Each structure stands twice: as C-alpha cells, then as structure tokens.
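ESCALATION

Customer reports they have been waiting on this structure for their group meeting. Please prioritize. Original submission:
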Amino acid sequence: MEMTLKKFTLRDCIAEAKARYRKHYGKLDWRFTDEGLPWAIQDYHGSIGSVMDFTPNDWLACKENGWGLDEICQLCGDEQFYTYVEHLTDFLSFMPDDMTKDDAIAAVHDFYTWRDEILPVVLKIYAR
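Update from on-call: job pushed to the front of the queue and completed.
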C-alpha cells in the first residue's frame, strides 16, 4: 500500500483553526481573529522555520485573512524581513553581534535571497 503525504500549508492550518473555533464557540468572532488566526500563523511559521519559507499561496492566505506582510514578519519574530529593511546593514542590525562566520555568511545570503527573489513575489501578491 503506497502512502502519499499531503503538503502542509498555512491555508490548511487556518482552516483547522477555524473548524476548532466554530466547534468550540459556534461561530468565528473576535476570539478567532485575535487568538486563533495569529496562533495558526505562528504555529505554521514555527513548523517551517522562517517567513522565507512561506509559499506564494501562504502569503496569499495571509492577505486574504487581513494580515499585511510587515504584520506577519512582526508576529513571527522575523523583523529583519520588514519591507523597510532595504540595506544589508539594516538587516544585520537584527542579528546577534557574536554571530559565527558561517551564520554571518548565511545571513547575507538570506538578505539577498529575500530582497531579490522572495520579496518581489510577495509584493506582487499584496498588490493584487
């Protein structure tokens, strides 16, 4: 018997959280908006590691649920990816002063990957 694994998405996490809140409270109200939705986003982020790992569909789910790009970065503790962080020195200001050489190299790579590859895609999603 062959087993296939379903891709874990933010949209799925949000749907599961909505179902839990509907079952528990009988409706989606401020509790879902203030607690359930942020928790689902944080839980998903924690399971994949970084907002850099969000797919375009994940970003679309954030937008559809009323969360802006910078709000997601703040909620997930990834402030170095704020839209106003345009320079490497600003990006590195969010990093610890005692980074190892390998961590510093990875941080520089992340900055350029975010700014040059990921952020333009995300901005297009939010511009629609």
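Sent to customer with the following note: The CA atoms of residues 86 and 115 lie 8 Å apart.
Escalation resolved.
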